């Protein structure tokens, strides 16, 4: 029976091939969303082994963070951009969970990240969430939390204001655009906890800075940051 199922699966794959979300190569039996070659050869940063990495440096003098990290380097037109695009716009939220588990396994090797009590994603405004149907960063957060063995807190950090795109704004304008955008529903749950704040791609870090500013208002809280990719 199992052999028959395998043959049927292979036959269906010939007619309707499943493609790698990063490189568009056909997936083979046992591969899930991302092919084996891409899983090993995407541009990993290894920032979990570099406390003073370039992502952490973006927050120096702005946020009192414990550590910061990005799983991959983001290059325009590259495979990581393909993954992020499919995750955000093509409904492939499974990518977020997979990348979260990959990141979580790396972060578990770090004495700092491994102490996280909660993983919290940067939230979408309820209007944007309704349009998209899911928060891509929440799926990344779930994967990390699963690998770290801690809790994922999805609905505590709230986006109160639906901001406009920040693509063409300066860093200062981006930060001003994000002021007073976020709030915390149940701050008492986070008191004295180490919070790992996660997002998809970090560029200037203004959104993460705005979120982190609110989270650090909670008494005794500690903050670390993790993203899928860092855009140079």
UniProtKB/TrEMBL annotation:
Residues 137-229 form the Phosphoribosyltransferase domain. CDD domains: PRTases_typeI (cd06223). It holds the Pfam family Pribosyltran. InterPro entries: ComF/GntX_DNA_util-trans, PRTase-like, PRTase_dom. Belongs to the ComF/GntX family. This is ComF family protein.
